[in-house]
UniProtKB/TrEMBL annotation:
Pathway: Amino-acid biosynthesis; L-methionine biosynthesis via de novo pathway; L-methionine from L-homocysteine (MetE route): step 1/1. The lineage of its organism: Bacteria, Pseudomonadati, Pseudomonadota, Betaproteobacteria, Burkholderiales. The gene is metE. Zn(2+) 1 binds at H652, C654, E676, C737. This is 5-methyltetrahydropteroyltriglutamate--homocysteine methyltransferase. L-homocysteine binds at I442, G443, S444, E495, D610. Binds 2 Zn(2+) ions per subunit.
Length: 764
């Protein structure tokens, strides 16, 4: 049988056990020992599951308390000075949490490190902070401890670690930029590589044969200096005597395939789901001893694989390479739910189309069996079931909606353009009468246990529609009265009825399906349950109008209608793979266009259409950018183009770099854009300043991903920095993101300080 292995497994647990344990620990309701016990139990469970699927090794090092880049940063001892880490002591778990959240059960609060998206996924990592004279050392033993832990359970292991070039590329600091080919960061390799070498030596001393080193930046447009750095870096790492599997994923290597030629590694993993066309190019540069790990099962989506197609792609390579061909998922399975078997409420037909992490390992085993000289009866049966499911899905009447397809064809002539911004903003200001530095929030308010229980009971039928609506209306009124009391200018209804900013809309749109336990980690303890877009998207009825209209009836101040944009719904769902993503996005845009015009007709004069995933959807290769940006911008304008000029359109984007796509951000032509800037200390405003961004902008002054309450002086200082870069009359004051995950006491304190900051700015 061909060797099968896995690049990584979901760490949260099928019932989100890790999330619950982390949050209990942070809240002081669980001890560190209890938290560690949860981690051990999850790791043991997942290793056993993977071993039973026939993998040659189980991955070790893919488990992380917050994210794998932060774990590695702490192992390297690269802790910023403000966290007070002694240079000769191990980095404690609470220090790791303070880097991520700004606070932990022990240790002084400090400003959390910046967080951003992991390539083009909805997973986040904590950005390493780099300094020119930074020293490195092995400062945490978690990797070695977990290797011993797995070995003690009888498992063969393959440790998984971030590559040195990728770790540096992802980092930033006062002297360095993140990514973007900053060659100055390469000067840090001299101090970094010896510690990598020490790590590999310690791994080898534990009796390990193979190590997986992840270098996903090989899917990017790399400057020549970075390409050249691979040779010397891996010559150093190869001296450890460990066999190195260099793993790339998410994109075609393209010209970077030449970086691998002659590289002193023992094997290469490539993503053949995203880029099957790269197979022949990679085969030509392998020498006669190197392994090819072929990523043939999607680690990014939940559809069953076409194993016949995968087998056809790889069969010739299997003949050529023999035992030097390994099979694997395309990337870590971190990005998909754990196990389809716990989904009891999905109908049988739809369920037969799906594959989660556990099932993907089964698919891998069947694929390996199909390449054998003699295919066994079990493999033949499994292949037949796979073919039947794919055929049923392709021919199902549930997928296609003629009405949606007809409207999509007609949408070419639908208006997207509004009057010029200067003309619009004058009419909006006349209608709204807002002060300078107007204040607002991003949308959601704290989701209390009472809200969650009421929503759960209603969905389970234990609460009547009338009782549920009464409870939600009471919550909306409380939120409106609180905002009026503290003096916010543009209010929100707080979104108590929404479980998630994407799932909520998916539940009300045609063409979507939902799971009960299809949780995926977004960052830290934050998990999302992406809906599944299996068919054409339609809006049977209004989705938000009644809640927004009720909130507006309670106050004379403007209340924003709150929607999630078409690109973000697309990006944060598991999307059908039988048509272009742009087509699905335009279907979403047309559904949202109807909602926007209905909100306006109901008297809502400010409508926010959130697009935090706009940058996330950008392809990794620049040559592919424009095609994506063209349809992404078009979809946003298609959703907003039906309103009057004096209806104010907001959008929100968080944790994104805007410098290289600022023209497209401007082309979206939202009247107001709110962005994350508190963790990055207003750094992101540079793109808007250099471009002379013409519309209004709200640079976030309150980091909602940390429990720390920002000080008044800090927020005033941030906004003064902003007003030094952009016209003050174009600035809004708001948090970085929604307040759903925060508690009421910190929310009240932070927003009160934020309003006072705006008042201070108006009179100084």
């Amino acid at each position: 049988m061909t060797i099968t292995h896995n690049l990584g497994f979901p760490r949260i647990g099928v019932q989100r056990e890790l999330k619950r344990s982390l949050e209990a620990y942070w809240a002081g309701k669980q001890t560190a020992q209890e938290l560690e016990a949860t981690g051990r139990e999850l790791r043991a469970r997942h290793w056993t599951l993977q071993a039973k699927s026939g993998l040659e090794w189980v991955p070790v090092g893919d488990f992380a308390w917050y994210d794998q880049i932060l774990e590695w940063t702490c192992l390297l001892g690269a802790v910023p000075a403000r966290f007070g880490q002694p240079s000769d002591e191990p980095v404690a778990l609470d220090t790791l949490f303070r880097l991520a959240r700004g606070r932990a059960p022990s240790g002084s609060p400090a400003a959390a490190c910046e967080m951003t998206k992991w390539f083009d996924t909805n997973y986040h990592y904590i950005v390493p902070e780099l300094a020119p004279e930074q020293s490195y050392r092995i400062a945490r033993s978690y990797l070695f401890d977990q290797i011993r832990e797995a070995q003690a359970l009888g498992h063969k292991v393959k440790p998984v670690i971030p590559g040195p070039l990728t770790w540096l590329w992802l980092g930033k600091g006062d002297a360095f930029t993140q990514g973007a080919g900053d060659a100055a960061k390469l000067t840090l390799l001299e101090n970094l590589l010896p510690v990598y070498a020490q790590v590999l030596q310690q791994i080898k001393a534990l009796g390990v044969e193979w190590v997986q080193i992840d270098e996903p930046i090989l899917g990017l447009d790399l400057p020549e200096a970075w390409k050249q750095a691979f040779q010397s870096a891996y010559e150093t790492l190869a001296k450890s005597g460990l066999r190195i599997l260099l793993a790339t994923y998410f994109e075609d290597l393209k010209e970077n395939v030449q970086v691998l030629k002659g590289l002193p590694v023992d094997g290469v993993h490539i993503d053949l789901v995203r880029a099957p066309e790269q197979l022949d190019r990679v085969l030509t540069i392998l020498d006669d001893r190197q392994v090819l790990s072929a990523g043939l099962i999607s680690g990014r989506n939940v559809w069953r694989s076409d194993l016949d197609k995968a087998g056809e792609l790889i069969r010739q390579a299997a003949r050529q390479l023999g035992e030097r061909l390994w099979l694997a998922p395309s990337c870590s399975l971190l990005h998909v739910p754990v196990d389809l078997d716990v989904e009891r409420d999905l109908d049988a037909e739809l369920r037969s189309w799906l594959s989660f992490a556990t099932q993907k390992l089964d698919e891998l085993k069947v694929l390996a069996g199909s390449l054998a000289d003699t295919t066994g009866a079990d493999t033949q049966w499994a292949l037949q079931q796979q073919r039947l499911a794919l055929s049923n899905r392709k021919n199902s009447s549930r997928i296609h909606n003629p009405g949606v397809q007809q409207r999509l064809k007609a949408s070419v002539g639908v208006g997207r353009d509004r009057a010029p911004f200067q003309q619009r903003i004058a009419g909006q200001q006349k209608k709204l009468g807002l002060p300078s530095y107007p204040t607002t929030t991003i949308g959601s308010f704290p989701q209390t246990p009472e809200i969650r229980v009421a929503r759960r009971d209603w969905k389970q039928g234990a609460l009547s529609d009338a009782t549920y609506e009464k409870a939600m209306r009471a919550e909306i009124e409380q939120v409106i009265r609180f905002q009026e009391k503290i003096g916010l200018d543009v209010l929100v209804h707080g979104e108590p009825e929404r479980n998630d900013m994407v799932e909520y809309f998916g539940e009300l749109l045609g063409g979507f399906a939902f799971t009960q336990n299809g949780w995926v980690q977004s960052y830290g303890s934050r998990c999302v349950k992406p809906p599944i877009i299996f068919g054409d998207v339609a809006r049977p009825a209004a989705m938000t109008v009644a809640w927004s209209a009720y909130a507006q009836s309670l106050t004379d101040k403007p209340v924003k209608g709150m929607l999630t944009g078409p690109v973000t719904i697309l990006q944060w769902s598991f999307v059908r793979d039988d048509q272009p993503r742009a087509t699905t996005c335009r279907q979403l845009a047309l559904a949202l266009r109807d909602e926007v015009t209905d909100l306006e007709a109901a008297g809502i004069t400010v409508i926010q259409i959130d697009e935090p995933a706009f940058r996330e959807g950008l392809p990794l290769r620049r040559t592919d950018w424009q095609a994506y940006l063209d349809w992404a911008v078009d979809c946003f304008r298609l959703s907003t183009g039906g309103v009057q000029d004096d209806t104010q359109i907001h959008t929100h984007m968080c944790y994104s770099e805007f410098n290289d796509i600022i023209e497209s951000i401007a082309a979206m032509d939202a009247d107001v854009i709110t962005i994350e800037t508190s963790r990055s200390n207003m750094e992101l405003l540079g793109a808007f300043e250099d471009f002379q961004y013409p519309n209004d902008i709200g640079p976030g002054v309150y980091d909602i991903h940390s429990p720390n309450v920002p000080k008044l002086e800090w927020m005033v200082g941030l906004m003064k920095k902003a007003s030094g870069r952009l016209p003050a009359e174009r600035l809004w004051v708001n948090p970085d993101c929604g307040l759903k995950t925060r508690g009421w006491p910190e929310t009240e304190a932070a927003l009160l300080a934020m309003v006072k900051a705006a008042e201070t700015l108006r009179y100084t």
